[in-house]
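Just curious. Invent one:
>
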Amino acid sequence: MNDEVRIGEILGPDGAERLEEDEAKVRRRFWPTLRMAARHIPFSQDLVAAYFCALDPKVPFRVRATMLGALVYFVTPIDAIPDMLLGIGFSDDVTVLLGAMALMASHITDRHRERAAKALAD
């Protein structure tokens, strides 16, 4: 089964375009959002590794789509609990991210983790 068929089955007929839009949004807003949320997220390195996993073209489409969906939720300022609420603003984001990361953990490789460690050290 090729990627085009999978895209249509998972995301509907406009799936590839939507995935590209999600990826562009995550690339543009991930780092500023992470900087703002870092002190509230004890698993920042795992989150950055998930980011690199979501952008890795070698990772299966369904994994990338799931991770990008969770990351889009993270970078979108309007969600179930507004991110600006001190102490609880990122709790819904954390729940979505942890769920996606748990489901896709086997696809987050040592290479993704190494890139995350390096990115956070810079």
Observations:
- The radius of gyration is 14 Å.
- DSSP finds six helices and no strands in the chain.
- The mean pLDDT is 79.
